[in-house]
């Protein structure tokens, strides 16, 4: 059969307002990434000034994870039900306010509260922003371009946040909180002007599934708390087991409620999409490997090598190449090879990057570390954006917020799981001498490697299915019309 290509349509070109909306939403995801990264760099200075215990300092990080992971599913569905623009703007204001309050903190509990509420705000704001993109840009080249640009900005926020956080901390750690306030104000002003709410008829009825909301939030909070506690396997393990058990029980209750609800918070049928499930599993495992590895490298450089915060940030900056490649190289590769193959290629690069870092030593030069940093940045550029596309592709418009909530829940839980796992493994051995501590780091580096391998296996199953589907379609096209 003869195939004729149609010329590009005018609709395939993004107009000025479309680019404006995309830049606003990219600014929000950049804000979320830079906020997390800057705080991580500033933690030692915060502890020194406020006299925080190790438990409280760890809690500052965990509080954000609990708020973010605990409310993400609810936040995603709220965007679908109550308006994406409304949820985005409302929680951006909350994020702005509580980030500012964190900068005025004089005691540990104030920081804990500020970070928890900031995490909750991000849990509502992030899926709302993603669903605005997936519903504003028609499925096809424009949406692919927008999502890959969005993914690159998110990665760039975290990478640049490490460096900016190091610079700001040298002035005063409180600027790590005040800087997001200024960025939030600019984004808010632009969003009020550019982002429009779709007509009410395009959204599902506003029926509150209160029981579902309570049980799923309780489940996510308890499971997130259990995952965070895995960092301390020998300390009060009973609480960890109890939290995990309670979370699973609440999740089971949530499923039972949703099956009987006439207007469920989460339509369980969405999980029948093999593509969506595989994308979320791969995202969880890959996020765990990526953030677990970065955490280990940070500890290795600062605690074993004695590098400064700024030197460590600059060393990790090479991974920020993803911010350049994601919106430029990745779209071309996706157009040629498809999302699944590009994701798989990115995961293979990550596996190589982790493997190259396994024989690290106490006298390693940065030149020896550099190949892993570059490969990891390239791998992230190839995997992160296409995972976002696959996880939201083919999902009904009135469930785009839910799909985004599921994806970001997977990313957040994966990151928490990876951090907890590498911390537990590295702390299991003795650290009386630098050589013994190095052995602990080498053992912990196996964790990101294994997680990346499992993510590649999960993706490969989708790649095989995609290849089979393509072959079937090709054979059908080869049959001449009668």
Molecular structure report:
By secondary structure, the chain is an all-alpha fold. Helix content is 79%, strand content 0%. It has 17 helices and no strands. The longest helix has 35 residues, at 16-50. Residues 1-11, 200-204 and 467-482 have low confidence and may be disordered.
Question: Quick summary of this structure?
Answer:
This protein is mostly helical.
Count of alpha/pi helices: 17
Fraction of residues in helix: over 70%
User: Topology as H/E string?
Assistant: HHHHHHHHHHHHHHHHH
Number of strands: 0
Q: What is the element layout, followed by pairings?
A:
Blueprint: H1 16-50, H2 54-82, H3 84-103, H4 108-136, H5 141-171, H6 175-194, H7 210-229, H8 237-260, H9 274-304, H10 309-316, H11 322-325, H12 329-337, H13 339-357, H14 366-392, H15 400-428, H16 434-444, H17 446-478
